[in-house]
Write a structure and sequence with these properties.
This protein has 141 residues and is mostly helical. It folds into two domains: 9-77; 78-128. It has four helices and no strands. The chain has helices at residues 7-51, 54-60, 62-73, 79-129. Helix 2 crosses helix 3.
Length: 141
């Protein structure tokens, strides 16, 4: 069974393929955007759920919780929060630099340690094979 396709139909099929590819790409982009929006909404819900928890209201008071929520809604932040955040960030930066320095030293010294052990093992094996006795064995029968 043979099907003959005219040139006009061939052009039409190519156009349809291009359209379908464009639709597929747009749907993938939209699905990623939707996923990110859902993630941000879920994150906001979790933050608000944490803010209105009974433990937080008992600790800070309902008025304080509502005030911080309103300030964040209108884009105004308290100066105290900024200074606290800077202090916390400086402390975490100091810890991170210490940890990164330790990791760097480990990264450099570990291969050197293995190389030294390998060389020591290799040199020890050579000495035992090429050992020359400089004394006479009296107990030999």
């Amino acid at each position: 069974m043979q099907i003959t396709i005219s040139q006009e139909q061939h052009i039409l099929l190519n156009d349809l393929k291009k359209e379908l590819l464009n639709i597929k790409q747009k749907s993938i982009r939209l699905s990623f955007k939707l996923l990110f929006e859902i993630k941000s909404l879920l994150w906001q819900f979790l933050i608000s759920y944490k803010e209105y928890s009974l433990a937080n209201i008992r600790q800070r008071g309902l008025a304080e919780v509502l005030m911080t929520r309103a300030l964040r809604f209108f884009g105004l932040e308290e100066e105290q929060d900024k200074t606290k955040a800077k202090i916390i960030q400086q402390k975490s930066n100091k810890k991170n630099t210490k940890l990164s320095f330790r990791k760097l030293i480990r990264l450099i010294l570990t291969p050197l340690y293995w190389i030294i052990l390998g060389l020591k093992f290799m040199s020890g094996a050579r000495k035992s094979q090429n050992k020359v006795h400089k004394f006479k064995n009296v107990y030999k029968e």
